[in-house]
Amino acid sequence: MKLSGLYAITTPSQYLPQQVEAAIAGGARVIQYRDKSSHQSLRFQQARQLSLICRAAKIPLIINDDVELAARVSAAGVHLGRDDIALKNARGDLGDDAIIGVSCYNDFDLAVQAQQLGADYIAFGSFFASPTKPLAAKADRALLQRAKQELEIPVVAIGGITPDNGKLLIEAGADMLAVISALFTQADVEQASRSFAQLFSEEEQ
Predict the structure, then answer these.
(1) Which residues contact 188 (CB under 8 A, 6 or more apart)?
(2) What is the pLDDT of residue 37?
(3) Sign of dihedral through CA atoms 20, 31, 40, 187?
(4) Is 41 one of the catalytic residues?
(5) Residue pair 9/180 in contact by the 8 Å Cβ criterion
(6) 133 catalytic residue (yes or no)
(7) pLDDT at site 205
């Protein structure tokens, strides 16, 4: 499976299944379930719902940070940050077919290491001011240009991305745009998703 296009990252909502269905209808190509709460039963219930939705749509569901939850709901994979389980251990728990992504912030050496350890994709950011992570390290487009030349795995750009600034990152080398606020806090999630998906269609023309 080629990883490219809109990478939709959820934010807590009572309408999460409907929002994810709308994001997929609009053109999202990957869904990440992200919920930092300690409400384990709710997280399991929601992740299981999203796993069924994504499987029906043939869209990979990635679980943020939680390898155990990814395994329990038969998700496609997991996304790991700096303080999470080691990639090697996640691979051992989830198997060779799992999609494992790694946050590399603004550190190219981290990305090289992640690729060497078997990551399926890496993520750089934050490229713009982000309401989700206002104190996140800032990344620049030169990282994407270098990654396109030197890395062999897909690259995700994240952080404050909108339909207005996203094309700059695709042109610089991003294979996927990871979006939270500009997608899941919008009144019309499907239309917001379509606006991002269109950026990739324009790049292919």
Answers:
(1) 22
(2) 83
(3) negative
(4) no
(5) yes
(6) yes
(7) 53
Q: How many domains are contained in the chain?
A: 1
Write out the two tokens for 47.
Answer: 């992740």
In angstroms, the CA 86 to CA 109 distance is: 16
Could you say which of 48, 55, 133, 167 is catalytic? 133
Catalytic, out of 4, 29, 34, 43: 34
CATH value at residue 181: 3.20.20.70
3-state helix, strand, coil in the chain (%, to 5): 45, 20, 40
Of 98, 61, 62, 56, the residue nearest 79 (C-alpha)? 62
Domain housing 92: 5-204
Which ranges of the chain have pLDDT less than 70?
1, 203-205
Residue 198: CB atoms within 10 A of its CB come to 16
Q: What is the pLDDT of residues 140-184, one digit of tens each?
A: 999 999 999 999 999 999 999 999 999 999 999 999 999 999 999
Among residues 51, 103, 130, 193, the one annotated as catalytic is 103
**CA triplet 34, 61, 141: central angle to 5 degrees?**
70
